[in-house]
Task: structure prediction
Amino acid sequence: MPWVEAALICEAGLEKQFDRIVVVTCPFETRVRRWMARTKVDEATARRELERRMAVQWPEARKIAVADSLVDNSGSKLDTETRVREVYTRLKSEAVGAR
Result:
């Protein structure tokens, strides 16, 4: 199966259809700051929107429990890119070994 990016894979009961699940996470306050910067909205609006979106998602701890890999996105862009490369390299290696 090709790469799929979706926030609600587990909530939809589709996680068994994938070979691996990678969860990307960061603290709520970081999400709020980033959403404010990206959408140019005030803090209260950003919080409401993120809370609305998160209300239909599993709690983070539950998603982490089913994850095969975790990417902490709370640091710098370089930190996140480094972790993504590590996960990608490992998954690619596992895929080659499974052939």
